[in-house]
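Summary for the steering committee. The consortium agreed at its last meeting that each partner would contribute one worked example illustrating the joint modelling workflow. Our contribution is presented below. We chose a case with several input lines so that the handling of multiple components could be demonstrated. No manual editing was applied between input and output; the record is shown as generated.
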Amino acid sequence: MLRQREGSAAVALAVARCRPQVVCAYPISPQTHIVEEVSRLVAAGELTCEFLTMDSETSAMSGVIGASAVGVRSWTATASQGLLHMSEAVHNAAGLGLPIVMTVANRAIGAPINIWNDHSDSMSQRDAGWVHLHAASNQEAVDLHLQAFRLAESLSVPVMVCMDGFVLTHATEPVDVPEQGVVDAFLPPFVPRQRLDPEAPVSIGAMVGPEAFTEVRYLGDRQLRRALEEVPRVADELARHLGRHSAGLVQPYRTDDADVVLVGLGSVMGTVRDVVDTERDAGRRAGALTVTTYRPFPAAAVAGAVPPGARVLVIERSLAPGSSGPVTADVREALVGRDAALHTVVAGLGGRPVTSRALAELLARERSGLLDGTTFLDLRSDVVAHEVGRPA
Amino acid sequence: MSTHLGMPLMYYQVGSFAVGNRLVDPDLRSEQARPDRAASLTKGHRACRGCGEALGARYVLDTAMRATGGRMVTVNATGCLEVFSTPFPETSWRVAWLHSLFGNAPAVASGAAAGLRALGTDVRVVAQGGDGGTVDIGLGCLSGMFERDDDVLYVCYDNGGYMNTGVQRSGATPPAARTTTTQPVGHSYGHAFGQGKDAPRIALAHEIPYVATATVADLRDLEAKVERAMSLRGARYLHVLVPCPLGWGTAPHETVRIARLATESGFFPVFEGERGRVTTVRRIRHRVPVEEYLRPQGRYAHLFTPHRREDVLGRLQQIADANVERYGLAAPAAAISTAGGGPDGHGEVP
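What follows is the complete predicted structure of the assembly.
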């Protein structure tokens, strides 16, 4: 049933209905409303679980590592500096093959300190070995959490669900959180593949030397890539339960005959779709491609959704200093062999709004061949000019 | 205490060195004297000869296994104990064992305990690490585990340095010790005198149910403390001094004797505390000058050659004296061997 909900409250309720048995929490903006609401649901008796308030994000991730290792469904949430703080444990969770689910309320990374939204945080963990799912709306954020637990537990791989900080977490809009019965039918109780058990003692986390380390990494990569088959399957199954389709690997929008496609992740794609509609109304063949599953990267789905010959603009919500943007590299590899132009547009860093007007201007410049390889959308040249003009 | 024949046991029969004494009632013997011991850390591991940590861990875990009826899991910090026990594909652990990272063992243990509680089982959690993993990189989450009073026994095997990475100085390295990052060259006498980082007292300040120190010189005492710890619920901390022949520059066969000199000199105080109060102390039977503890150790050799560093030795003696004073470690010999002290030399703190 659709109800006006804050994104954080909707996700908290969705997480609760997934029945995590251990939740480890450490507060950081803009994730706070999510864990606050989960703690309230626990206190109110609506969710039966062990709720641990930890002393740091590293401890929060470590706590769910311990819980997951003894065989219980475990969840945590973080953002920004918090994700960087726990980075060592994020990699460790993937290496140990623990099916942890984590919500990331995407936020910029300092310095300079900035609490607003971009994707620098989750992109910094791109190679940690987790499945990365990006919600474009709060409804998608809810639906992705249900799928995340299924994916994690069927693959024994951790999954992070990324939702744009403030833009989604603090936005109130009509959202349907599936009823408990529906979630239970979709998400069976967790049956761990391996766990710490005195009845069948195993050693987990052994030291692996050069003779086997490559093989361990190979198998981990192979397992992660299985998500490329599992994501569509799980999304389809959830669609049968909910009567609506949510997420998947990628979501093309009016790309079939497009001669220019804007590719991106997360909530900005709502604006991008509006711009595509406006372009189409003006007779220009624009399309949008939302990458929902960012890791493993769905290269074949991306290549399939971008028509041959179409120019591509990758909307980057984070910067890869000294290079361009992380998504650009993936898209370029997916489209290797095509000679159509590919541009990087760094947009919306540290919470700067990505407006439809700016995107329309961008497309006009692209049509005129005035676009550089990498463009910073809405860069205030007057602000940087002074510094750029100073002698080195 | 008496034998199963009803005869009173003399101190020398059951003293701190007794392990498999057949005069002693089976229930009073060391866990290691029992053929059905868990052998939690079994043969084949790659610890150095004379490793105090391997010795300590075996006694700790086998006793914990007995106390829990085998219903426990272990969490291990990165360090020597982890590296020498699990070179893939081998393992020396016969207990359920998890290694995650260097600095997060207490938090992993907290999560494991929460998970086991969620499952409704009676399975307990024992976490362990070295002094670097405990008093330095893991101290934050250890404090968190204490503060939440999670049902975890955390055991720190303290060998006074980062031995696994090649004997670097840790927050638990004693003053004047030579490590590879506190080398006695030029005017340096080794590790500086500072405030130190006294993890057992930090633990005690959290007013958790149980805190104790022990050494591998008195293994029955160590076992008794593990038993006591496992009889309690909530956060418990055990700090075990474990000489490291490699890092300390001691002979492998000297490990137990060196540990004994650490306590007999007062340099390492052995005590128990509950809820913030010291409850019992291990009184010193034959007090020795701290020099006797230092002299056999290569890491202090620069205090004796080429010139005797009287000033440094004096300050180290002051540390031992302060411990004796603080914990009341000095006791009349009569008080140790008869009333009050008990056969193991324990005394209640008034």
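DSSP finds 13 helices and nine strands in chain B. The radius of gyration of chain B is 20 Å.
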